[in-house]
């Protein structure tokens, strides 16, 4: 049995060896193609179409260059060229050249005058203000000072005379003290007189209304200055008297206001 098995195995080996065939030898062309395939990666899908050749660049437009003036000629400025282009054509023969037409502006009377202040028209037709030298006389000043202090007439600083107002004072000839002063205001009607008096009563220092001299009257003081202001109803006047304490007392100033009120009513 063992011998038969050995014979059977030998026969099978012979059969198997006889069925194997050696692979055909590769040709040189096939070997080269195989080497190229191994070097380059496999391409999936159809082969791409060859790229189109680049288009030729478009021709560059020629750049216009300014003409070079001939030697000795200077180029005209741009402003002159522009003016020459805008200049009107010369008129034909027999025609007059057009002249520049300038619109005439009618001559006016100047800027309009400013509107007059409310209730204070110009001096045309207005009553003449009383003369302050007649309202407050030199004799009044001598009576206050008893001749001990020399005073002279001078403008009152801070109030410019106008058709509606006036002021003056008697100041000491020596020293810097205050003497005696008077201010006068004329209004057009009683309502404006009342408004001015009320404004003074509210603005003067320590002002208080006192017994009337002729119309409403107030007394005020500030440091060494005394004031008495009053209304002259018959003339639409507001008058303010002032005096330094070294010249007069409050009672003396009140009596002086009574005198001035009587004179201003005439």
Please, could you describe this protein's structure?
This protein is an alpha+beta fold and 266 residues long. It has a domain at 132-264: Protein Transport Mog1p, Chain A (3-Layer(aba) Sandwich). Helix content is 30%, strand content 17%. The chain has a seven-stranded antiparallel beta sheet, sandwiched between helices. A hairpin with a 4-residue loop joins strand 6 (225-232) and strand 7 (237-244). The termini are far apart.
Keywords:
266 residues; alpha+beta; Protein Transport Mog1p, Chain A; 7-stranded antiparallel sheet; 7 helices
| Helix content class | 25-40%
What spatial order of strands do you see in the largest sheet? 1-2-3-7-6-5-4
Q: What fraction of the residues are assigned to beta strands by DSSP?
A: 15-25%
Distance between the termini: 185 Å
Count of distinct strands = 7
Number of helices: 7
Mean pLDDT: 72
CATH architecture verdict of the domain at 132-264: 3-Layer(aba) Sandwich
Query: Which descriptor suits the 3D outline?
Result: rod-shaped
CATH class of the domain at 132-264: Alpha Beta
SSE class? alpha+beta
What is the name of the CATH topology of the domain at 132-264? Protein Transport Mog1p, Chain A
Element string (H = helix, E = strand) = HHHHHEEEHEEEEH
Residue stretches low in confidence (pLDDT < 50, at least 5 long) are 40-48, 56-88, 90-123
Radius of gyration: 62 Å
Biggest sheet features = 7 strands, antiparallel
Topology:
Blueprint: H1 2-19, H2 28-39, H3 78-86, H4 132-135, H5 138-145, E1 151-154, E2 165-172, E3 180-186, H6 190-203, E4 208-210, E5 217-222, E6 225-232, E7 237-244, H7 250-264
Antiparallel strand pairs: 1-2, 2-3, 3-7, 4-5, 5-6, 6-7
């Amino acid at each position: 049995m063992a011998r038969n098995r050995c014979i059977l195995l030998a026969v099978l080996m012979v059969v198997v060896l006889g069925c194997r065939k050696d692979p055909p030898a590769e040709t040189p062309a096939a070997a080269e193609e195989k080497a190229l395939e191994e070097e380059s990666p496999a391409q999936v899908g159809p082969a791409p179409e060859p790229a189109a050749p680049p288009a030729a660049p478009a021709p560059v437009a020629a750049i216009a260059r300014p003409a070079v003036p001939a030697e000795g000629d200077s180029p005209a400025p741009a402003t002159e060229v522009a003016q020459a282009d805008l200049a009107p054509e010369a008129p034909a023969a027999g025609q007059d050249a057009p002249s520049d037409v300038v619109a005439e502006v009618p001559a006016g009377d100047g800027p309009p005058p400013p509107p007059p202040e409310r209730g204070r028209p110009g001096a045309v037709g207005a009553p003449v203000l009383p003369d302050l030298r007649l309202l407050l006389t030199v004799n009044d000043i001598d009576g206050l000072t008893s001749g001990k202090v020399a005073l002279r007439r001078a403008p009152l600083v801070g109030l410019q005379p106008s058709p509606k107002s006036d002021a003056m004072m008697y100041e000491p000839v020596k020293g810097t003290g205050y003497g005696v002063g008077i201010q006068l205001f004329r209004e057009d009607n009683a309502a404006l007189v009342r408004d001015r008096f009320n404004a003074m009563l509210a603005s003067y220092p320590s002002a208080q209304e006192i017994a009337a001299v002729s119309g409403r009257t107030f007394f005020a003081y500030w440091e060494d200055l005394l004031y008495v202001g009053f209304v002259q109803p018959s003339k639409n006047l507001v008058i303010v008297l002032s005096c330094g304490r070294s010249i007069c007392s409050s009672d003396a100033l009140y009596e002086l206001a009574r005198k001035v009120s009587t004179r201003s009513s005439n």
